[in-house]
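FORM 7B: Structural annotation worksheet

SECTION A. Query
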Amino acid sequence: MANPDAVGTEGTPFELVVERGKIREFATATYSTNPDYLDRKDAVAPPTFLTTTLLWQPPEGNPWKAVELDGKRGLHAEQRYEFFGPPPKAGTRLTCTSRIADVHTKQGRRGGEMTFAIMTTDFHDETGQLVARATMTGVETARPTTEAS
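SECTION B. Predicted structure
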């Protein structure tokens, strides 16, 4: 069962360097043909590129483990990105900090009570300016859902 005491847990800040080659690889992997992602020396990161932070955040500094969702009953429910200016470009160094913003429950239709956990990750540039915020929502059902007859 998810731990409601995880709310407010903050992870260790870590760095994400927005690299031109990684932008191109990400754009290619997502079947983009946008030249702003593929051909420019100052390539712009696609909005969902920030998902790659999952590859850079040190496991011991990730606050998500404090939520303690049961992986057998867990789902990735939503991912949202909010930008406070243009998306970062190649060469930008971002400092990223994740924190558990909320844990709450609601009654589900088939699987009983559902627990929602929300983690936000803030992305600041070299000047300290907030560039973007990612919000991830995970869900844990009270019991495994069954197939409808």
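SECTION C. Observations
The mean pLDDT is 90. Residues 4-141 form a domain with the Thiol Ester Dehydrase; Chain A fold (CATH 3.10.129.10).

SECTION D. Sign-off
Analyst initials: ____
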